[in-house]
Design brief:
The chain has 221 residues and is an alpha/beta fold. 37% of the residues lie in helices and 11% in strands. It contains 9 helices and 6 strands, in the order ααβαβααββαβαβαα. The strands form 2 sheets. The chain has a 4-stranded parallel beta sheet with strand order 3-2-5-6. Strands 1-4 form a two-stranded antiparallel sheet. α7 links the parallel β5 (160-164) and β6 (181-185). The longest helix is centred in the first third of the chain and has 16 residues, at 20-35. The two termini are 32 Å apart.
């Protein structure tokens, strides 16, 4: 696994790449990609870091692991490739944006347009075996992505963390709540959304309000 990551991140993460767990993780990922169909494509594993460079990152959204359906995942959490059907969680995200900001439901589920505005769309696990949800969990990815969250918290100021669902909320101890903003809600999955834990959270307008207060403009959702 070649660590093809934007140069802006390397000073902050180079120590992780040299640790034993990351070497073992690299061997595991290489073996999995050699034996099985895995997602996303190898050159997209670190796509979240290529689109949201370190200095420009101002919002962080945390997912769990990539979509495991045929050719959906593109390396950004909740995002799918252009032309792919929108998974249920993504549908509910777009519906909340529609209700919150009055923005029409989009045709494309590719969230590169968000990432390019400084949103780090970070899955806790960056790879998955086709058709097997969670198959690459507990192999070292979570150690790496926790380190990313901690480094962002330590090195930056006034980031906005959008933590949706119980798994994402477990990352709160990694974040210095005295200098960053944390917005929490239920997960956008139908199970959570249908129980009233997602719709109406207004995270998208709230994020823009915080950014405008900072003089950082706003996100075009």
């Amino acid at each position: 696994m070649e660590v093809a990551i934007h140069k802006s991140w390397k000073p902050y993460l180079k120590e992780e790449f040299s640790k034993d767990y990351f070497r073992r993780l690299t061997q595991f990922v290489r073996s999995e990609y050699a034996k099985y169909t895995c997602y996303p494509k190898g050159n997209r594993i670190f796509a979240a870091f290529d689109h949201s460079i370190f200095e420009a990152t101002k919002v962080v959204i945390i997912g769990q692991d990539p979509y495991h359906g045929p050719d959906q995942a593109n390396g950004l959490c909740f995002s799918v490739k252009d032309g792919k059907a929108h998974p249920p969680s993504l549908i509910n995200i777009f519906k909340e944006i529609e209700g919150d900001l009055g923005i029409s439901y989009p045709s494309s589920g590719n969230l590169e347009r968000w990432a390019d505005q400084g949103i780090l769309l970070l899955n806790a696990t960056l790879t998955v075996r086709a058709g097997e949800a969670g198959s690459h969990q507990k192999q070292g990815w979570e150690i790496f992505t926790d380190a990313v969250i901690k480094k962002l918290s330590d090195e930056k100021e006034e980031l906005i963390f959008l933590l949706w669902g119980g798994y994402a909320k477990k990352k709160i101890p990694l974040i210095n709540i005295a200098k960053h903003h944390i917005l929490t809600s239920g997960h956008p999955s139908p199970l959570s959304a249908n129980r009233g834990l997602w719709f109406g959270n207004k995270h998208f307008s709230k994020t823009n309000q915080i950014l405008q207060t900072q003089g950082a403009g706003s996100i075009n959702w």
